[in-house]
Amino acid sequence: MLSDQKYNLILEGTFRTLETPWRITEELKFKGYTAELHAIAVPKDISYVGTLDRYFVGKTKGTGRAVDKRHHDLVAEKLPVHLKALAKSGMFRSMHLHTREREIFSTEHDVEAFMEQFQREVERRLDFAQGNRLAKRIDFVDQALAEEERRGLAAIAETPIAEIRRELQAIKKSRNIGMER
Questions:
Q1: Is 86 exposed, middle or buried (0-12, 13-18, 19+ CB in 10 A)?
Q2: What pLDDT, on a 0 to 100 scale, did the predictor assign at position 179?
Q3: Bridge partners (DSSP) listed for residue 86
Q4: What local confidence, expressed as pLDDT, does residue 2 receive?
Q5: Nearest 5°: phi and psi at 16?
Q6: What pLDDT shows up at residue 180?
């Protein structure tokens, strides 16, 4: 096992459950490792569009992995609860919060500030450039969905394409995409 050879390790996951990251962190600490908690804070709607975008881009390369919307939403719902529990556990030397672009917050012990910054980030409004990037991603996904429908597919990872389209329209409306900004 790599941990027995004292390699530096990065463990990645969605925190869908609390048990797995908790157990692995405890096992590694028992072996003498120090642990840091790093989380990427992304608004739920942008995260979902990202799963679709990655699926269709990956599909062209033979590596696409679709995510069922219900599963995505379950993970997004549980993430703040599990993240707070891990942050409060005292198992981590430090806690770091990132966007997809950069680190935005770091602390050794201030769980409340860490979680407040997480909430601010996942609830934030987009600036003009970010809104334009999201609009382009949604357009790409819309075109890819149309291609899937031409091929006779009705669902992506058990989520009906019609439901995906409704969700994309709701995101565009809530983010004022395609409207005067």
A1: buried
A2: 64
A3: none
A4: 85
A5: -55, -40
A6: 52
Does residue 84 belong to any structural domain of this protein? yes
Does residue 163 lie in a domain region? no
Structure tokens at 17: 């459950």
Tell me, yes or no, whether 54 lies in a domain: yes
Which residue stretches of the chain are H helix? 19-30, 44-61, 69-88, 111-122, 128-150, 161-174
Cβ-based burial of 153 (10 A; exposed 0-12, middle 13-18, buried ≥19): exposed
Question: Does residue 100 belong to any structural domain of this protein?
Answer: yes
Q: What is the count of structural domains for the chain?
A: 1
What's the CATH number where 107 sits? 3.40.50.300
Under DSSP, is residue 99 helix (H, G, I), strand (E, B) or coil?
Answer: coil
What confidence score (pLDDT) does residue 181 get? 44
- Residue 91: exposure state from Cβ atoms within 10 A (0-12, 13-18, ≥19): middle
Q: Quote the CA–CA distance of 38 and 103 in Å, as a whole number.
A: 9
**141/149 Cα distance (integer angstroms):** 12
Residue 17 sits in which domain range?
A: 2-125
Exposure b/e, 137-152, CB count within 10 A at least 16 = b: bbeebbebbeebeeee
Could you state, in chain order, the average pLDDT of each consecutive group of 10 residues for the chain (181 residues)? 88 90 94 95 96 96 93 96 96 95 93 97 93 96 98 96 97 85 44
CA distance 82 to 158: 26
